[in-house]
Every structure is written in C-alpha cells, then in structure tokens.
C-alpha cells in the first residue's frame, strides 16, 4: 500500500470558473488566516505560454476549441445533500446546474488584444477536435510547460491579512503551494467579476509580436531623429 500523501501540485493550476459560458475576467484574493509558513500563491502567464510554442503549433491551436466543465461540484452537492445555485450567476447565460461550456483553446484578451492559451487546468475536460489521447497529452503538456518554466511564473508569499492579490483570469493561471500541513489554517475570501464570452480574434497578435512592433516603431522613430540631426 502506498501512503496517501500529495507530492505534486501541478493539478492545482487553473483559471477561475472557466466552465461558465461567461467566465471571470478579474479576481481578487485576500487571506484572513495564514499558516506559520507556506501556502504561497503562484501565477503563470498565458501570454508567455503561447509565445513558447512554435509558429506551426500556434497556428494549429488557434483553430481549436475545448470543453470546460466541473462535474465535481455536482458530485459534491449530491454527496453532501445540498443544491447548486441554478439561477443566473452574474450573467443570463450562466444558469442551471450543467457546469460546462465550449470556449476556444486560444483566447484573445480584449484589453491588450494579445493571444493567450486559455485551456489550462482542472476545469478543462477535453480539446474537442482531438482524440481522447491527443487531448489528454496536449493538456498535460500545457501544464508541463508551466511547471518546468519558472520564468513565466510569479510567486507571492502572503505576509499579513491586508495583502490583496488582483489578476486577470483571461490570460493568467494560478495555484497555491500545498506545503503548510500542520502549520495552521489557510483561509480567505475570493471575489470574481464576470467578463465577456471568450473568443478568438484571428487578427490578434501574440505579446511578443505586439511588443516587437512597438520596439520597431521606437527604433525607427529614433533613427529618423538621428538622420534629421
């Protein structure tokens, strides 16, 4: 028999409520009880994850959709004898107890206009256009790219109950570190707002493409000033 001890936190990565037809845009998190140490929160960039892919892979994933679902919530409700809230949850589309939706694998952030890998984490059931095995391997690979590349992550060590974290769920994933067993409770409150139905704009750019254009424009402008002088 193996000891029932958690050794990997890779399955914790996710963006909030992506199983809703209209999921969250921004999230706020405040911890009101902190363990003696541990229990940090990590975030990773969906922009950078997209930019880590080769151009052929980017073009391939641009065309795909995924099913986002969270049946565990329904199972927990049945097991613990409570009902899920079935009335509109912040948007008319977010209604009923079937917690599933179809969204693109690559999402365009409406604020920046940049592409981000959206299909990451335990709210993603499958990539619709792939076989079961292809989908599983692809989704696992996305998470592997996150956990093996610390330079696309940031980490916050909670210092006191006045710390407040705010992030954009449309292009950022997060997880907690599960390293505080026996070191006290870790509790808090999270609030999310709702954005728009996720979409992919084929005219949108990756972050690197957009920044390269900006830098190129600046260099061209400086060059024109030097020539004029």
Automatic annotation (TrEMBL):
Keywords: Dioxygenase, Iron, Metal-binding, Oxidoreductase. Residues 7-191 form the TauD/TfdA-like domain. Its cofactor is Fe(2+). The keyword Nuclease does not apply. GO terms for cellular component: cytoplasm. GO terms for molecular function: 2-oxoglutarate-dependent dioxygenase activity; metal ion binding. It holds the Pfam family TauD. Belongs to the TfdA dioxygenase family. This is Taurine catabolism dioxygenase. It comes from Massarina eburnea CBS 473.64.
């Amino acid at each position: 028999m193996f000891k029932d001890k958690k050794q990997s936190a890779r399955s914790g990565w996710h963006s909030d409520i992506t199983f809703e037809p209209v999921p969250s845009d921004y999230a706020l998190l405040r911890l009101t009880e902190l363990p003696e140490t541990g229990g940090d929160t990590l975030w990773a960039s969906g922009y950078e994850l997209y930019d880590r892919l080769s151009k052929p892979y980017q073009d391939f994933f641009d065309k795909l959709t995924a099913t986002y679902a969270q049946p565990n919530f329904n199972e927990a409700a049945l097991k613990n004898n409570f009902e899920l809230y079935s009335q509109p949850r912040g948007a008319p589309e977010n209604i009923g107890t079937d917690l599933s939706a179809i969204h693109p694998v690559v999402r365009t952030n409406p604020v920046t206009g940049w592409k981000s890998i959206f299909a990451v984490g335990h709210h993603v059931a499958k990539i619709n256009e792939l076989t079961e095995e292809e989908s599983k391997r692809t989704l696992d690979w996305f998470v592997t790219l996150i956990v093996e590349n610390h330079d696309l992550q940031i980490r916050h060590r909670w210092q006191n109950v006045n710390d407040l974290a705010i992030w954009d769920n449309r292009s950022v994933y997060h997880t907690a570190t599960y390293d505080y067993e026996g070191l006290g409770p870790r509790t808090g409150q999270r609030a999310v707002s709702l954005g728009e139905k996720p979409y992919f704009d084929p005219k949108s750019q990756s972050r690197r493409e957009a920044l390269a254009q900006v830098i190129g424009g600046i260099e061209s402008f400086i060059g024109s000033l030097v020539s004029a002088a």
